[in-house]
Amino acid sequence: MNQTGHPSVVYYWRKIKFLFVAGSMLFLAGCHQEQAVRRSRLIFNCDGTDLLGNFMFNRRPLSLADVNAYVDAYAGTQITTFMMCSGAHNLYYRSAWTRIIGEEAPGMTVDATSEDPENVGVYYRNYLNVEREGTDVITAVLQRAREKHLETFISYRMNDLHFNAPDQSPLSYCDFWANHPEYWINEDIGWHSEGAFDFAHPEVRAFKTGIIAEQLDKYGHLLDGFDLDFMRFIVYFKQQEGLKHAPLMTELIRTVRQEVDKVSARTGRNILLSVRVPVDMDCCMQKGLDVKEWVRLGLVDIVNIGVHWCGHPAMPVAKFRSQLENDRIPIYATVDDGGYRPRETYSHGMRRGMAAHIYAQGGDGIYLFNHFIGGAYDETLSQGSLCRRTIEPLLHELGSPETLRRRNKIFAIDDGAAAAYGYRPDTPLPLSVSAAEQSRADLYVADPLPEDLPEEAVLFIRTDRPELLAVNVNGTPVNEQEPAYVTSFDRDHNLENTETVYAYRVPVTLLQQGYNTVAFRSQGGELKVKRLEIALLYGPVETNGYL
């Protein structure tokens, strides 16, 4: 027998390798804690279907050149971190666990006339186009992002509800999901929630951790981090069972952490583990997500916070940090592309206001969700001084509090649109106002006042019906109205029934950085304040940005 093949030599060699790998994993685990420093990031989450649909290039057949150009468009901005969504139940690569999105299962017959509202058939055909060029979409994106010196993450949707309902194409259904209705939540607590996976079942958790381990193994050599997106969607257990099952999710996170560390040791890369969770700790616990425990145990390196499918205009970042009881871990807050009731696309000024709010509240950076550019997204949709599209210029501003200074902004209070799947935002709106007593609401202004003093400040109040109002700001009455501003600033967008919008000019010296109290009293009957916003104008839109 060859000397190196002697059983005793083999035994000791295996033992040395085991100790080396174990030591490397312990070292890298320590590195994660050292690396989890609070640094600024502007994160872009590519949901994958935007790329597979090739919306940037007006839906032409996708090519590898298009994939590279897609990444390049974001690389030329303040974006620091490119998160590529890998899918959820069906994926954006060939997997041992499930099919590619839009791929027919063996023996499947799809009626040519059946609806495909999510264009999954197009996604699959475009996937094949890139595969014929010798790669897959995720590999191509990660490689290009690294070439452009961007930090690279995969973002995995933990319980996506887009493709689990009868109104979807059979091409979108995951076989594991379709074959096991006993693993569904089967409760109506929001859009498509009946078909959400119930993570109380060990088979569901094994399915998810198996996919995650596969992605880490396949793409780990290209990764700086791996993101578990619990906001897509925030349904994991039956109602009232989340708290009881929280230890199951903590164990899932522990399993993923072990996989991350194993791949880090193998590749020599310090792969970070991030999570995206609800902005309220009580809501997290109700959903079975014991984020505070994950952080305490050192299982995660980054916490991203948000609400479902809208940008919270007054994201309570400082409150979340206080609830987390950890000053070291980075927290990034989500800015989505729209919100309000009825839903509307947020304007430039509102997105600046949300970003400035996050920074002023102690957030370490911004997590951009649904911020797509190119194609129809770059069609200018403007009304007077306000613009809701052409997002690319904002990607040169949102990455730093400094580049947001003296830029025109709108600060606002959530109108209740952030409520979803059991989450209830802490908002005074809608606010009842009567003649009997004053009603108050605190509106946060993030800009460094009075150091950066705007040229003009305008308070917009949307009510459910017309009525004379007595309004004061920080104890001082404001009386001068500017009715023309309602239209030129497009604040009458999506008015319903008898809703009315008032615009009051506010002396800029009345405002302060932080919370500003706005008080109301009706001069007639009772009414409700449904939206409350304040616009700060530092100069013309040509030099200081559209609102």
Describe this structure in words.
It is built from 15 helices and 21 strands. A hairpin with a 2-residue loop joins strand 17 (469-473) and strand 18. It has 547 residues and is an alpha/beta fold. Mean pLDDT is 91; it is low at 1-31. It has helices at 7-35, 49-52, 64-75, 120-132, 137-147, 175-179, 202-219, 242-267, 281-286, 291-296, 317-324, 348-360, 401-404, 483-488, 541-544; strands spanning 41-46, 81-85, 151-157, 225-229, 272-278, 302-306, 331-335, 338-339, 344-345, 365-369, 382-383, 386-387, 409-412, 431-433, 439-445, 456-463, 469-473, 476-478, 500-506, 514-522, 527-537. The strands form 5 sheets. The chain has an 8-stranded parallel β-barrel. It is globular, with a radius of gyration of 25 Å. Helix 7 (202-219) runs parallel beside helix 8 (242-267).
Share of helix among residues?
A: 25-40%
Strand order of the largest sheet: 1-2-3-4-5-6-7-10
Q: How far apart are the first and last residues' alpha carbons, in Å?
A: 79 Å
Helix tally equals 15
Mean pLDDT: 91
Overall shape: it is: globular
How many DSSP E strands? 21
Radius of gyration from the CA trace?
25 Å
